[in-house]
Specification:
By secondary structure, the chain is α/β, with parallel strands linked by helices. 28% of the residues lie in helices and 25% in strands. The chain is built from ten helices and 16 strands. Strands 3, 5, 6, 7, 8, 15 and 16 form a seven-stranded mixed β-sheet that branches. It has a six-stranded parallel β-sheet with strand order 11-10-9-12-13-14, sandwiched between helices. Strands 2-1-4 form a three-stranded antiparallel β-sheet, with no helix packed on it. Helix 4 crosses helix 5 and helix 4 packs across helix 9. The protein starts with a strand and ends with a strand.
Length: 353
């Protein structure tokens, strides 16, 4: 069982220092290990022989120490392939050996085999390619809860929503889903990803220059607040979906309409620092910092979201772009590609069979 293992730091002292200081685990510290034992089958679980594993920004947060993990650890938290072994409890839930499945919110997916609770497994319809199904895991499910649930109903169909980063990753999905929900959507993107962002069907698109030497937006190149106020006739937006973090959180707050909600779900440009709640007093605004596990608490909730996503894909209402698929042996290159802002869609690892 080959695996990609993050061995960033060794001693407890070093771990404490990494939590306090800057990121101390570069991608080059990830190593491939071979002949690693296949995980044991647990009651109520299955063993999935992975064909693909998704690469997500949260994986880089774990690797860097922004989100603490015990070290060393196997990276990843979404994958897909074929069920190689199933417990009696899993079989009773309707899954069996040989089923083509995807899953997310399960650690240790940068590996040939992963132990997965049966409650987390989604059987993939024949109409959906497996790489697309794996792409639906973290990013698709995240986009679904962001546009359907996290805003707590504070934005209604026909009202404005701002979605940052609609040219890449999760927010390509979120922009399309927001339109399916009937919201009016303002997207943002860099010049190099304008074609992708426009293809999502956003009503308005704000295009930033790129920071020198990168594919990332230069968020100082456009004065966002007056542009949003112009589009919304001075009202602002009822919801902001922001996975960028440090570079955008202040303008995200400033463009809120009265009783609008700031949905801060990611840290692509760095973590949002602590700030006083008084920032929301001008418009009596709301803030939420959600995560996927709290929006897929039950299998029923998981399947409701999955069925929506697979249904939209099958009907052509949702377009999923798989950008790059790196061999697992290129684990370092996969993380570097994502962190450089170069992705124009989902980034995956292909797992040796």
């Amino acid at each position: 069982n080959a695996r990609a293992c993050c061995q960033c730091l060794e001693s407890a002292r070093e771990v404490r220092e990494s939590m306090i200081g800057a990121s101390t685990c570069p991608s080059s510290n990830m190593k491939i290990e071979k002949d690693y034992p296949t995980p044991k089958l647990a009651p109520g679980g299955v063993i999935v022989k992975n064909k693909y594993s998704g690469i997500n920004f949260i994986d880089t947060y774990h690797r860097s120490g922004l989100y603490k993990r015990e070290l060393p650890f196997i990276g990843g938290q979404e994958g897909g392939g074929e069920i190689a072994a199933a417990s009696p409890e899993a079989i009773a839930q309707g899954v069996k050996v040989g089923d083509r499945v995807s899953y997310s919110s399960v650690f240790q997916t940068y590996a040939q085999y992963t132990a997965v609770p049966a409650s987390k497994v989604i059987t993939v319809p024949e109409s959906v390619p497996l790489d697309v199904a794996v792409s639906c895991g973290v990013q698709g499910m995240t986009a679904h809860y962001l546009t359907h649930s996290a805003h707590a109903g504070l934005v209604k169909p026909g009202e404005w929503m701002l979605i940052h980063g609609t040219g890449s990753g999760t927010c390509q999905w979120a922009a399309q889903m927001a339109k399916l929900r009937g919201y009016k959507v303002i997207g943002t993107c860099s010049k190099s990803k304008e074609d992708i962002a426009r293809a999502t069907g956003v009503d308005e698109l704000i295009v930033y220059d790129e920071a020198p030497g990168t594919s990332y937006e230069d968020y100082t190149s456009v004065d966002l607040v007056p542009r949003v106020m112009e589009i919304t006739k001075g009202e602002g937006v009822k919801a902001v979906i922001d996975g960028i973090g440090l570079a955008t959180y202040e303008t995200s707050i400033d463009v809120l309409a009265r009783r609008g909600i700031f949905v801060s779900f990611g840290n692509a440009s760095g973590a949002v620092p602590a700030f006083p709640p008084l920032k929301f007093i001008n418009k009596s605004g709301y803030l939420t910092r959600p995560k996927l596990n709290d929006y897929t608490v039950t299998r029923e909730e998981l399947m409701e979201r999955a069925n929506d996503i697979f249904g939209w894909i099958a009907s052509g209402k949702l377009q999923v772009a798989v950008d790059r698929c790196f061999p697992l042996e290129q684990a370092v290159e996969g993380h570097d590609y994502l962190e450089a802002g170069r992705s124009r869609g989902k980034v995956l690892y292909s797992i040796p069979q």
